[in-house]
Each structure stands twice: as C-alpha cells, then as structure tokens.
Amino acid sequence: MRMVSVLLAAGALACSANPPPRWQEGGAPLVISPARWDRPDDDSIQIHADGKVTEDGSLLFVIDRAGRVVDKDYEPLAIVLPDGHVGGPDNTLLGRIGHANAAPPGSAAAWLAVMPNGQVVRYDEEGDRHDAGVWYGCEGPQKRTCTLVSHVLWVQDYVRRSRGGVSVGVGVMMTP
User: Fold this and answer.
1) How far apart (Å, rounded) are the C-alpha atoms in residues 88 and 163?
2) What pTM value is reported for the model?
C-alpha cells in the first residue's frame, strides 16, 4: 500500500493540475532564515533568507512563510497544513512533518529526524538509523523549516527512484 501511495504522489509531483489544499490562504507558518545542510556524499543544501532552496547554486524550490513550496518554475509543489500533513497537487498526501521529524506518504513511522544538534537521521524501512548529515542554522522554530526541506527532497528523490522502469497511469501496481 505504501508503494501505491508513493506512486500516486509521483503523479502529483510530475504534473500539477490543481494546487494543494488551502493554497490561497496558506498552511502552517514557517520561520525562514539562512541554513545549510551538509550531506555525506552529496552537495550541501542551502536555505536562503528569501526562501530559495539551492544545491550547489542551483535553485531546487522555494518555500514561503505560509508553508507553501513551489518548484523552480514557481508551480505549486507542496504545502504544510496546520496539522502537519504535507499536501501536494491534486489533493495528494505527501506525508506528515512535525517540528523535527517527518513520515513518508502512507506511513505513520518517521523516515527522518533532525536531532537537537542538527544531525539528520534517516530511518530505513526496518527502522535502522543512518547518518544523513548535519543542518546548521536550524535551531528553534527554524527546525521545522529544515525538516520540511529534508522531507520534500526525500519525497522527490523517492519518486525519481520509483519511476525507474515504472510508468504512472491508471491502475494499481503491486510490489512484493
């Protein structure tokens, strides 16, 4: 069931016919200030004061203080709702975030946590912990923004990996 939810999320991230729910009024308030995520074996991710999120100088997406996320073409990508759910285009659930943790679509178990020292921990499907780098500048209320950025990047990455040889369309795909 989790794979079906993620494939539905993939369709929502691929083409946005309708913006996420509450798009006009905004979602949960976010604090946005400069921060950096140093990731092992990857380029660092930067959050800029204007909400732009970049990797190695390239714009990935933009967040605003009303919990909205737009892609690099400024098309609606996601919104954090006041209850922590992350909504995507066409009313697709993209998971849930708290102040310092996030769960993927279709799961109540966290797949990431941002620890008090900024360390990012990724949890695999068996619950094992893996080092995913360190956020700098993510203290206090900014931590939820950093958690959202990590979550959106992982949802996008998961969707990209899920597409390998799989097409999204009408129907249900079952995986072993």
Assistant:
1) 18
2) 0.82
Predicted pLDDT at 171: 32
What is the per-residue DSSP string for the chain? Answer: -HHHHHHHHHHHHH--SSPPTTTTT--S------EEEE-TTS--EEE-TTSEEEETTEEEEEE-TTSEEEETT--EEEEE-TTSEEEEGGGEEEEEE-SSEEE-TT-SS-SEEE-TTSEEEEE-TT--EEEEEEEES--TTHHHHHHHHHHHHHHHHHHHHHTTT----SS-----
Structure tokens at 61: 């997406």
Q: Average pLDDT for consecutive 10-residue bins of the chain (176 residues)?
A: 41 62 95 97 96 96 97 95 95 94 92 96 92 96 96 86 48 34
d(CA 53, CA 37): 11
Nearest CA-CA partner of 5 in 123, 99, 94: 94
Nearest CA-CA partner of 67 in 160, 154, 147, 136:
147
Cross-strand bridge partners of residue 114: 120
Task: Return the pLDDT at 47.
Answer: 98
**What confidence score (pLDDT) does residue 131 get?**
96
* Cβ(79)–Cβ(21) below 8 Å: yes
